[in-house]
Amino acid sequence: MTQSIWSKLFTALRGGASEVGEAIVDQQALRILDQEIRDADSALANARRELVTIMAKHKLSADRVGEYNAKIKDLESKALAAIQANREDLALEVAEAISTLTNDLDVEQKQATEFGTYADNMRKDINKAEARIKSLRQQVDMAKARESVQKAQVSASIASGGANGKLETAVGTLNRLQARQQQRAAELNAQDELAEASTGNDLDRKLREAGITPDAGSANAILERLKKQSAE
Predict the structure, then answer these.
(1) So what's the pLDDT on residue 70?
(2) The predicted structure's pLDDT at residue 159
(3) Residue 151: per-residue pLDDT
(4) Which of 228, 2, 227, 44 is nearest to 133 (CA)?
(5) Cα(17)–Cα(128) distance, rounded to whole angstroms?
(6) How distant is the alpha carbon of residue 230 from its chain centre?
(7) Where are the domains of the chain?
(8) Is 218 left (phi over 0), alpha (psi -120 to 50) or beta?
(9) Helix runs in the chain, H state only
(10) What's the average pLDDT block by block, 10 residues per block, for the chain (232 residues)?
């Protein structure tokens, strides 16, 4: 049972670690890694429960070792008392009981040592596994962050490219509109010139501009008119 749990745990960790370098390339890698981390956490939780069981067995076994030692010590003192009372027969009986307890003590001590060693090894392995899972989770978090940043960069590049294309189109449209407006203004000016020429206004304008025909609306003309009125 224990072997299968540890096998699953370290297999999951090795599989997860091998995927880290491919997290950006493979779109499913992050999902796979998350699942593998959950599997590793589950296996680790089972290992912790087994460790608790082993530690409990170690404690019970160690307690029994203490009890055996106490009983043996007590029987030894009674055997000495029997010897001092010249009751070697009774002392021998006590010695036989001590022998049986000593054999039981040896078995229990061996079992307690095995439980203790196994618990220590499990504790070290669990600590290593926890560190590996923590490191793997950190790498996954960084991979997720890089993935998000790269997606944002791709989206921004696409948006920027689209915006630039639309901007170029808008500038082209504006240039064509301005050209049409300039053409229309020139056409309107030409039409005005043709209209003035057809009514004679164009000739009067040219004479006034040349100073040949006095401009009644000029300041000098108005001043002369006012002087004449004042003289009258």
Answers:
(1) 94
(2) 59
(3) 76
(4) 44
(5) 14
(6) 96
(7) 2-167, 172-231
(8) beta
(9) 2-20, 29-84, 88-199, 201-210, 219-231
(10) 53 53 56 83 90 94 94 91 89 91 94 94 91 85 80 68 58 74 77 61 62 57 64 65
Q: CA 50, CA 1: separation in Å to the nearest integer? A: 10
Q: How many C-beta atoms lie closer than 10 Å to residue 60's C-beta?
A: 14
Alpha carbon 119 to its chain centroid, in Å, reads 35
pLDDT tens digits, 148-163: 787 777 776 665 555 5
- Give residues with Cβ within 8 angstroms of 5, minimum separation 6: 43, 46, 47, 50
Residue type, 129: A
Contact 20, 136 (CB under 8 A): yes
Q: What is the DSSP letter of 24?
A: T
Distance between CA 133 and CA 48 in Å, rounded?
14
CA pair distance 190, 209, nearest whole angstrom: 19
Report CA torsion sign: 103, 105, 109, 115.
Answer: positive
Q: How far apart are CA 100 and CA 103, in angstroms?
A: 5
Residue pointed to by tokens 């300039």: 182
CA-to-CA distance for 224 and 159, rounded, in angstroms?
A: 72
Cβ pair 159, 40 in contact under 8 A: no
Distances in whole angstroms, Cα of residue 122 to Cα of each of 43, 49, 115: 13, 11, 10
Question: Residue 51 in contact with residue 170, Cβ under 8 Å?
Answer: no
